[in-house]
Amino acid sequence: MTQIDTHGQPRRNPHDKELIPRVMTRAMLALVLTVLALVTIARVTDRPLIATPPEGEIVVSREVILAGDMAGSATVHNLDGTLVADLTPDQGGFISGVWRVVLRERTKHRVALDGPVVLIRRDNGRVEIQDPSTGWGADLMGFGADNARAFARLLAQ
């Protein structure tokens, strides 16, 4: 039962403590507002992006059709339907995860779900995947060397 003090305000129990100190709440608010201000300034002044992967010339490019399941299995086919890779959940987990991202993007853009994606290796060693039907793409090095190697193997086959 809440007790009321002489001024009509709820009386706090001396054992009650603030879970988040006011100083911390104000510091977090200041941090959020500072970041918002910096991003706004960068966008308004057209500041160039500096944390983008280095561009390189395309060395190898290959169109493939990805398929997978929620367990992590994945299959990769050439455009003519020949099987490139049939991967178990242990082998194809990352490829299946990328397939789910492609499906989500295609669903958002309301395009065919079974179109090809383009795997690209550049002269600087970076591996990318691009979906021409949605414009989505990713530099696979951002997901770690092992995951990028999974797609690099598909380019080598």
What are the defining features of this structure?
157 residues, 22% strand, alpha+beta, 36% helix, six-stranded antiparallel sheet, elongated, 3 helices
- Write down the overall mean pLDDT: 84
Radius of gyration: 25 Å
**Total strand segments:** 6
- What strand order characterises the main sheet? 3-2-1-4-5-6
Low-confidence parts: none
Q: Which percent bin holds the helix content?
A: 25-40%
Separation of the first and last Cα atoms: 72 Å
Strand-residue proportion: 15-25%
Structural class call reads: alpha+beta
Number of helices: 3
Give the helices and strands as they follow along the chain.
Answer: HEEEHEEEH
User: Per the principal axes of the C-alpha atoms, what is the gross shape?
Assistant: elongated
Biggest beta sheet attributes: 6 strands, antiparallel
Can you tell me about this structure?
The chain is α+β, with helices and mostly antiparallel strands and 157 residues long. Helix content is 36%, strand content 22%. A six-stranded antiparallel beta sheet has the order 3-2-1-4-5-6. The chain is elongated.
